[in-house]
Amino acid sequence: xxTTARRAIVTVEPRGAKTAGARQYxxxxxxELEHERDKVAAMVLANEAIAPLAAQPGAECAFGxxxxxxxxxxxxxxxxxxxxxxDEVMQxxxxxxxxxxxxxxxxxxxxxxxxxxSVMVPWNQAAPSAGWHSxxxxxxxxxxxxxxxxxxxxxxxxxxxxxxxxxHCEVCDTVLVEWGGTKVWSAELVSRx
Length: 193
Known about the structure:
By secondary structure, this protein is α+β, with helices and mostly antiparallel strands. The protein has 2 domains: 6-122, Alpha-Beta Plaits (2-Layer Sandwich), CATH 3.30.70; 142-191, no CATH class. 15% of the residues lie in helices and 41% in strands. The chain has helices at residues 39-54, 87-99, and strands at residues 6-15, 24-32, 60-68, 71-81, 102-111, 118-122, 143-145, 152-159, 167-168, 175-177, 183-191. The chain has a 6-stranded mixed sheet with strand order 3-4-2-1-5-6, with helices on one face. α1 runs antiparallel to α2.
């Protein structure tokens, strides 16, 4: 196999229904091929890269070729594991692929705990995605964190006929919404910090 930079695209996705119990996760990666003759070496590399995940109890693996018409353009490997993979396992997968000359990108699918919204983010990104309140709640749900103490509120509003009063944090008295807006806001404290 040649060592010029090719792409390895790795995704981590939860599987099954969102419930209070544990969920399986699927780790899938695709290795681009430059030539048809690279297929065997790519399959060997895929087996090596997926080995730490495949060694976990209950893991289920699958390998395949992705083709456009009659030409194989990439190899895909998938493994289902009983829980979200650890940073160490994902780093080992990244090292195997990058050592073989692949440019590796790792992303994960995050789902909102309160609706069906989802977003792809870089693996283990600590910050919420743009437009999301937290890593597990999308922006559709009107949550707001207090700038003073970090307490979390769920916000609701109605139209105001005149200037609306300010709304203050009930924990630290920081202003959540300034006086004079066109909406009357109410806030329900979700978590106190």
